[in-house]
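User: quick one, fold this
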Amino acid sequence: MKHTVRKSFIFIMLAALFLFAACSRKKAVDSSKAEAGPQAAEQLELGKKYLAEEQYDEAIEAFLKSIDFNDQYVDAYMMLGELYLDQERFEEAVNILKKGYKNTGDASLKELYTLSYENLAYQYYDNEQYDEAIEAFEAVVTLDKSNVDAYMTLYDIYILLEDYENADVILEKGYAATKDEMLKETRFTNLSEMGQQFLDEEDYENAVYYLEKLREAGEKSSEILVSLSRAYSGMGEHEKAVALLESAENQDDEIIKNAMADESARLGMEQYDEGENEAAIENLKRAIALAPNHLDAHTILLSVYMETGKAAEARALVDQCLSKFMNAEAASSGESFENFLNVVSEFYGEQDNMEACLSFWEKAAALRPDNEDFRDQVMGYRSTVADNAYMLAEEMLMEGNVNGAMANYKKAFALAPDNFEETLVFTDNGTYGLKKDGSFRVGWYSDEEGERYYFNPAAGNDHGRSVMGWQNIDGSDYYFEDDGRMMRDDVAPDGRHVGPDGKLLGDGQIPTEEETKEPEEEETEEEPETTGSHKPETGKETSASQETKPVSSTGNKSLKFNTDTLRDARDKGGVVSVKAEDLFLNYKDGNLSLNDIYTCMSQYGMKVQWISEESPYELGMGDFVVWVFAETNRTDSAVVVKDANKYKETLRAKALPEGTDFAIEFGSTATRSNETVDIDKMDTVNKK
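Assistant:
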């Protein structure tokens, strides 16, 4: 902005000075002339004559001669200074008036000298001669300490030169001299803006400098305290940041409370890094008390609990965090949410609870479906949980726990189908044919090398296991090796012969062409898993008339889950075997059907799914799965299935046999649901 000196302004000032000078000189005009000396007075009068005739150069020469004759002659200095000002020859005006004021100490000369300096300063400023302008304005405020405009212009110049320190100094000096409110407000605004600018630029040292100057000037608003605490925190002085916020007059101010929560969390993090765990816990708890949804404070506190072996506190905090932060709002917090996920994941890893970790990451991926890293985490944990389930299934199979093994095989294939292949599983107890869905083959099966097996279709611990020794299947006798392979065209250990088709030769002679015909390969997997005619027997067959007929269950309509059993299972993790009387309330032995179980699950307000309608039967809701292991054959060879759906309805309504086993699991992904079963809500339903 130009500060051009206007002639009208100069004329006004000159008129005022003339009046002042006239009043002081009129009373002593005769004595003034006598004191000036005749030569000086003569040159002054000559200069006035030239000035009236607008012969300015001659007038200047006459005034200078007058001063040469008498360097104490105030009138000569005044006339020459006024003429220089009128011609905007400010530097010459300053020089002659400086000399006159120095020689005489005259007040009117001082005023004109100050005016000349101010105009010279503005001239330098307009010409962008900032160093010269600063020097001139400094001279002005030295001569006239009340000149607010000069202080403000000096401030503007320093800001242009980015000399913020001197910009503040001149405002401080100006306010001290003038008590002008504009200077004070400008200084406060400047310090605040400079402090905030450096804070935003993460230049914390300079931010502290300006914000502290602002506090010293008397500004103690909450906003300034918060900004200053952030600056100290940025310098790593977290204790000072907290102490500063503690000095705030209004501790209930939300701005102060939120800032205190942030700084307490940062101080807690610093203390944690330095091994001061108890102090860290205290500050992190304070942060959470001030801001209950402070995600970073919860995350750091969980890390401290894990580091210090406070397992119970860590477990409780994880449960609290999952209920608070597994939502869209927290997921939008970016890095804070990702840090939280990683620490909770680490907690589950230390607990060796990969299934909980998988469920956790699946929920996170559902909240951020566009996050590729989250999807990779889910796939990684699915693979890990599947591998663990597969290994557990193998162990269970070796121990003879067929139902548990099949449940875990199914889980493994469901979670990571690409990790596993259909195969034959050889154990000390026999051979099993593992299908792609994790279930066991039943009935006849030929492997890639042409070896034939017959896998037991009966329910229970023999289900899916290869038969051994002599077996009567579909009216013919066959001999199977210990590894389940059917013997062909050879002699069994008891001396009896089997032909190329594996069937027993009654007379031990070479079979006829009809007898050697290979049996047609039948895959019975798509049929009901067990039939009376396919159940392997030794020495006799079971007729269709001996099979149990479908019976509808009655008496279990008020069935409810025993929530104590469910809580125990959730705490244990994995697949847990249970008895019907422990799993259900109001259970009546011998009157339980699959429909009863489905109805029981449906009353808790969640979607119930049939996951498998083949033995073992599998139902699920949310992350909760129930397996039903019927000990005997439930299908009926006398039934001709014309409508598969009606046949399934018949089986669902059919009473489960005594001795039926159950297994349950929480954290399952079989339902592909992100919902979690709330056992406390189930308690509420049970009380109705």
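User: anything notable?
Assistant: The longest helix spans residues 372-398.
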